[in-house]
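Run: sequence + zinc ion -> complex structure.
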Amino acid sequence: MISRASFLWAAGLEKMDIDGRRLVDDLRALARIGKVGTGVNRLAFTPDDVAARQWLLARMGAAGLDARIDGLGNVYGQTPGATKAVVIGSHTDTVPKGGWLDGAMGVIYGLEIARAVMESGAEGGVDVVSFADEEGTFLGTLGSRSFVGELREEDLAGAVNGDGEALAASLLAAGYGHEDRAKLDPARHIAYLEGHIEQGPRLEAEGVRIGVVTSIVGMRRMLVVFHGQADHAGTTPMAMRKDAGGRMVDFAHELTGKLGATAGKDTVWNFGRMVFEPGASNVVPQRAELLIEFRDIDMAVIDEMEAVIRTGVAAADGLGGVRTETSVLETSAPAHMDASIGAAIEAAAKAAGAMSLAMPSGAGHDAMHLASHVPSGMLFIPSKGGRSHDTAEDSAEEDIVLGCRVMAGTVARLLGLSE
Ligand SMILES: [Zn+2]
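>> structure
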């Protein structure tokens, strides 16, 4: 039975609408900070990244949010007076020469929806967050890990960027580094939402404008190393070589078929690096290494892919006098979005006259850390040509606005249901 108060609350939110022009203007203004060609370059804690955080802090303040930047650079704004809130966020840092929407769009969605909710006079709040260093200049998803209490102090202490600069020193140089840490508040926060560009070609290919993320894939990286013997490549007969490079190429070719037979429908894998040592045309390779990465939404499939690689390595070990070994370098578990939030996104898309497609996210996002602490949902819009992590990244303005409208409809449903 819906109470009168919640009916009025829902009725107020029903009238809520976002301002598409204001949303796009804010995104375009943010894209001018660190602009490089049609993209942006805002690596975590560089002057442009810090300038973007300061700009966002000012925009949050102008919107009426209680906003601050915490000691890790998270920009966090709360709706004043609200006792229950949906957190909406993403990140404003980028990869080198990245796109203008990766991360930024999800943050500005939060800002615009917070403004729309406040302007509608509805009760219930939207808290907005831009998480620090999602892209891993120092430590990937630094801000969201801290927000949910998963950041370990030793990770923080040991983190350096590609130039060997320490995270702690860079935080201080940026004017952060103080003790304050913005935190998820279980008593206040009923859900986390993140809007993002798809960064892949599926929505565009299907002609669908809204993606409802079911899960963020888990990932495992494995290294296979081949130990042979360096010899003169002109004088050593083929049958007498211990050719680590030749063995690696044969192994990779055979493995391709075996991984294909094991993969699920959305499993992806990649041979991202092959190294031949010493790497000269006239030397038989004495050592070779193959870097393999694979991703799936099901941990069991990830484990099976690893088992196939291990079986292949065991079978290859010793062939042609080449010793072969493997190890796991890195692993992360799949994160599952909340099914009822997914249904709310789908319903909001329908109400906005848009079709939606349920799909996994093959890329990692801040939402993967939030998901095990608060019911979480993610919404995708199409990426032109599937391009991302490049200045060519772009999406149609109509799709950017539609995505925000669908997320606002989702927020209305979540706040209405929370009574
Ligand atoms: Zn992103």
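>> summary
The radius of gyration is 24 Å. The chain has 13 helices and 15 strands.
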